[in-house]
Design brief:
The complex is a heterotrimer of chains A (about 210), B (about 250) and C (about 200). Chain B is mainly alpha-helical. Chain B has 10 helices and no strands. Chain C is α/β, with parallel strands linked by helices. Chain C is globular, with a radius of gyration of 17 Å.
Chain lengths: ~210, ~250, ~200
């Protein structure tokens, strides 16, 4: 409970400070960046954690790891959708075009596609254990692809993403950004934790109802 | 051996499952009734090659698609000269879709005809992985020998760096083959096999697609260096091979 | 003495239960019939024993001559399985099918040894015919030939007599007799009379 309260205050503070920060040079409505970037970072963190929990499932075969992997993937996908939408709106305001196919936009679309395929795979398998095995393996392949798409392609394709502008323009930018990143990652952990517990309970219920029938 | 029923409480279920898991993870004495040697890999490759050569189903599908797609494209392009980046993107899209059509068959056919069970019993998982990956690679290389020149001809592409083109095709094929093998094994065990394979393969192959297109663009005349993109594809290949090596057993075996 | 034990086995797919609370123990030198109604899970049980399907509950253990016990991973290596409708590679000849499985298992062989093995199943004359061209009975025999190729300590036969003619059933009997000498056989069958001829019974 205390954690929830602290988290709520933290995120609210992050939002307020974001609005109070001076605008970046050459960019319009730069406040949105304090939500867009943390969301994107949280999405990738979620994917990494989901893949890690998948590895734990493969090693220990404890269904709680699989439930957690599923939870992080679901919440991460949601964060990713928000990140894409905020980024697109911001791009529209700045460069009059909602979609430009720059390196990081490719990255986030590819990552969301991977999430979607992950869920499609899970729902297409009937056998419980097989479902979890395939999910874990695909989560690992998926996060590899996501890392390639997000970080590796900046070297190839010119990006509209203002990776340098902001660091130079707004003082305290870094602090605000990481403050928000931390807050949203904590939010991720909280929400995914709840989802994982719900999933574990559901599986347990199924197991029990079968054992007793 | 009494037939009987025994209700097992859920708590002991989990420990029983975990115990079973511990026993399951003990590696069997490979070589006692199964081989993971090169001969076994070769046996798998040869079996698939023989089967494929006698039916030519996947081969036909890939070749027909690889020829039909550039024809369809060139109708629309109508003798315009396209920029190298566009041509490269088109080429790799054609190659990707041809792969999506032809490569999953190697596992789907096994699962659908019921031979997958015998394969699981008789073959070490590594033999299945490398044998089928080699088969997929051979299939890709063979079909691209025809498809790529046809593409270049029909769409008036000018190859300024043929060595780069050959290299990127080879590296790209390796990535395609290994990814398609693991993902094909996964999709073959689910419902709606062919459709699911396309859905799960595209996101994982997207980095390969983008990097290969970038390198091919340079080979077809775009300015710049192909080396950064080639590096990315090479790293992708290595990472995918390592991941396949470590994870295939979880996909293939129970 | 080698033993195959199943304790507390159960299997469900999603919410559909196949069977539960199954226990059995079969010793070396035994042919056991696996009986049950249609859909009761006879094939599933055989596949669980062969390590092809993971049970939802319980476990299968194999204790070999020297007393070491092993689980499903080792079992799937040593078992021979003949599934119903003999799924084999239809575009390969009977001989090529056998050759593939011999190579895959790392068995030392030569053409004549494989030919002899085929001859034991009455398939010598059809060795170079595609498996898809064989009749269902001959394919069933080929399935038996493949399953017994590596002289498995545990032989799992799923409705083996279904398509066999008189001669085929003799061959099956010879296979089971040979298996009694060296190991265990489990035969899933719907035929009550056939089941009665075997040594033991597992009811699913």
């Amino acid at each position: 409970m205390l954690f929830n309260v602290v988290l709520g205050i933290w995120i609210t503070a992050g939002i307020v400070i974001g609005f109070m920060m001076p605008p970046a040079i050459g960019l319009v409505h730069s406040t949105v960046m304090y939500f867009h970037v943390p969301m994107a970072i949280a999405m990738l963190t979620a994917f990494l954690i989901a893949a890690w929990r998948g590895i734990q499932w493969l090693r220990t075969r404890d269904p709680r790891h699989d439930a957690a992997s599923l939870a992080y993937a679901e919440v991460g996908a949601f964060f990713g959708i928000i990140a894409t939408m905020t980024g697109s709106i911001w791009a529209g305001a700045n460069w009059q075009s909602y979609w430009n196919w720059d390196a990081q936009q490719i990255g986030i679309v590819g990552t969301l596609l991977t999430y979607g395929a992950l869920f499609a795979l899970r729902s297409a398998v009937d056998d419980d254990d097989k479902k979890r095995d395939l999910w874990a393996v695909y989560a690992i392949f998926g996060v590899i692809a996501a890392i390639f798409l997000t970080y590796v392609f900046r070297r190839l394709v010119p990006s509209l993403h203002p990776n340098d502008t902001l660091t130079k323009s707004a003082p305290g930018y870094r602090l605000t950004l990481w403050f928000n990143v931390f807050g949203y990652i904590m939010l991720l952990v909280r929400v995914a934790g709840l989802r994982a517990r719900f999933e574990t309970a559901r599986e347990r219920l199924k197991e029990l109802s079968w054992a007793m029938s | 051996m009494q037939p009987g029923s025994e209700w097992q409480s859920p708590a002991s279920t989990r420990s029983a499952v975990r115990e079973a898991a511990g026993v399951m993870r003990t590696p069997p004495t490979v070589g006692a009734h199964r081989s993971a040697s090169f001969a076994a890999v070769h046996a798998v490759f040869q079996k698939d090659w023989r089967s494929e050569w006698r039916t030519r189903a996947a081969l036909n599908a890939i070749v027909l698609f690889s020829v039909a797609a550039p024809i369809a494209l060139s109708f629309n392009v109508a003798r315009q000269v396209l920029a190298p980046e566009v041509l490269a993107g088109c080429l790799w899209s054609v190659l990707l879709f041809a792969a999506l059509v032809g490569l999953p068959r190697v596992f789907v056919r096994e699962e659908e005809s019921g031979t997958a069970a015998q394969l699981r019993l008789a073959c070490a998982p590594e033999a299945v992985l490398w044998g089928k990956a080699a088969f997929n690679l051979a299939l890709l290389c063979m079909t691209q020998l025809a498809a790529v020149p046809i593409f270049i001809l029909l769409l008036n592409a000018r190859v300024t760096q043929p060595f780069v083109l050959l290299l990127i095709l080879l590296l790209g094929d390796i990535g395609l083959a290994i990814a398609a093998t693991v993902l094909g094994a996964m999709a073959a065990q689910a419902r709606a096999r062919g459709a699911l394979f396309s859905a799960i393969a595209v996101p994982v192959l997207l980095p390969l697609l983008v990097a290969s297109s970038a390198a091919t663009a340079v080979a077809l005349g775009a300015p710049g260096e192909a080396w950064p993109a080639l590096q990315i594809v090479a790293v992708y290949d290595v990472v995918m091979i390592a991941a396949a090596w470590m994870l295939f057993d979880f996909v293939w075996s129970t | 003495m080698a033993r195959l034990c199943g304790t507390g086995l159960g299997k469900r797919y999603g919410t559909r239960a196949v069977f539960r609370g199954l226990n059995f123990e079969v010793g070396s030198g035994t042919v056991a019939a696996v009986v049950g109604a249609n859909g009761s899970g006879k094939s599933t049980l055989l596949r669980i024993i062969g390590g092809l399907v993971r049970p939802t509950l319980g476990q299968v253990q194999w204790h070999d001559e020297s007393g070491t016990s092993a689980g499903p991973a080792a079992l799937s290596e040593i078992c021979g399985l003949a599934a119903p409708d003999a799924p084999l590679y239809r575009e390969l000849t009977a001989f090529e099918n056998l050759e593939f499985f011999a190579r895959a298992r790392g068995l030392a062989f030569d053409g004549s040894r494989l030919g002899d093995h085929l001859a034991q199943f009455g398939l010598k004359s059809r060795a170079d015919d595609l498996a898809g061209d064989l009749s269902s009975g001959l394919r069933a025999r080929l399935g038996l030939a493949v399953a017994t190729l590596h002289t498995p300590p545990v032989l799992l036969l799923d409705e083996p007599a279904a398509n066999l003619d008189e001669a085929g059933r003799d061959i099956l009997q010879r296979v089971l007799d040979a298996q009694r000498v060296s190991g265990i056989a489990l035969v899933a069958t719907n035929d009550a009379r056939e089941a009665a001829t075997y040594d033991e019974r597992i009811t699913v």
